[in-house]
Amino acid sequence: MKVLVTGGLGFIGSHTVVELQNKGYEVVIIDNLSNATLNVLDGIEKITGIRPEFEKLDLRDKEKVIDFFNRHKNIEGIIHFAASKAVNESVNKPLLYYENNLNTLIFILQQMAERSLQNFIFSSSCTVYGEPDELPITEQAPVKPALSPYGNTKQIGEEIIRDNTKAHNIKSIALRYFNPIGAHPSGYIGELPRGVPQNLVPFVTQTAIGIREQLQIFGNDYDTPDGTAIRDYIHVVDLAKSHVVALERLMNNNNKKAYEVFNIGTGQGSSVMEVVKSFEKINNVKLNYKIVGRREGDVPAIWADTSLAEKELGWKAELTLDDALRDAWKWEKNIRDAKNFK
Ligand code: WQD
After folding, report:
1. What angle do CA 102, 103, 106 make, to 5 degrees?
2. Structural contact between residues 224 and 301, judged by C-beta atoms closer than 8 angstroms
3. Neighbours of 318 (CB within 10 A)
4. Which of 82, 337, 20, 331 is nearest to 189 (CA)?
5. At what angle do helices 149-167 and 104-114 cross, to 10 degrees?
6. Is residue 188 part of a domain?
7. Using a 6 Å cutoff on CB, does residue 154 contact ligand 1?
8. What CATH number is attached to the domain comprising 147?
9. What residues act catalytically?
């Protein structure tokens, strides 16, 4: 049972590779290293004792992708992470995002149809919901106009997969992630943002370790209990496990429809201030932060109704916000200690 993981050296991809290997699957990774480094392979091997097969490949290079599939005949399933994912970069470079995220998705699906590959897991995002009308948000909530080209590529991606599933016999599941945070408890793999982190938790850990001077909290005048925005922060290991469960649903033909969508979150909302205070408490560190104005495009509050994933996938997040913040801090300290990473 060989599973192809595209973007498998990325933050969520690498953690998913670990969980696939833990369940005995043989994994082959395609990654173009645009947002990952090769020592992620070392980290995976340190955790599982198995170095996954890896090919440096850009999915836009059609010749090389066709050659890859010609050489790998026994792929049972594909988990597709490879995509550009920085929200504000997508505003400045929309065509890069539409080309990279959508053309490569279409090409992968074409290759699957030509080779009768059937099981496809798509990395989607709660960003497709925009600003929710009611909370917690279910999969039946309306998809609203995207707040960024990145979010739009996830919306369009879901529609392409849905329509493709009708035309070809490719069973597909889209997992709508809420906010992935944390790192593997071993401290060997985690989030490696390039440049200034856009996301909250890596900015928190880099501020705590002294790389960043001060955390800016974007707004405390939202209509929430403490005024700061609320998100559903899910430990990346729980998120990784949901991919294995979803793939097995398809490989065992337990899916109820050819195309299914699941919210993958904890079902629990946490404010920015709650994250900051939990981080300080659980790691016994003091964070230098300042409240500033709201960030353009932020929604005040969103968290998941995860009952469908619980019922249909038998999956539920088990790790807490504190677990994720503890693991994120351990990882940050590890990567700054050069001896661990050649
Ligand atoms: C979380 C909260 C910020 C940084 C994005 C994408 C989503 C997914 C996850 C890819 C917000 C606040 C943040 C900072 C802050 N990415 N914040 N200071 O925006 O909910 O979701 O990342 O799939 O698709 O949209 O995550 O971590 O950027 O922000 O106060 O320095 O933290 O305002 O309220 P977001 P985030």
Report:
1. 85
2. yes
3. 11
4. 331
5. 20
6. no
7. no
8. 3.40.50.720
9. 150
335 lies in a domain?
A: no
Q: What is the pLDDT of residue 246?
A: 98
Does 107 contact ligand 1 (Cβ within 6 A)? no
Span 108-160, pLDDT tens digits: 999 999 999 999 999 999 999 999 999 999 999 999 999 899 999 999 999 99
- 294 C-alpha to center of ligand 1: Å? 12
Give the total number of structural domains in the chain.
1
Residues in CB range of 103: below 8 A, 6 or more apart: 60
Q: Backbone phi, then psi, for 299, in 5-degree steps?
A: -90, 145
In degrees, to the nearest 5, what angle opens at C-alpha 216 toward C-alphas 210 and 221? 155
Hey, whose CA ends up nearest to atom 18 of ligand 1? 217
Q: Rounded mean pLDDT of 259-278? A: 98
Phi-psi region of 297 (alpha: psi -120 to 50; beta: other; left: phi over 0): left
In a domain, 333, yes or no: no
- Is the backbone peptide bond immediately before 180 cis, with ω within 30 degrees of 0? no
- The parent domain of residue 30 ranges over 2-181+233-265+303-318
In a domain, 96, yes or no: yes
Does the C-beta of 186 come closer than 6 Å to ligand 1?
no
Place of tokens 């490696």: 192
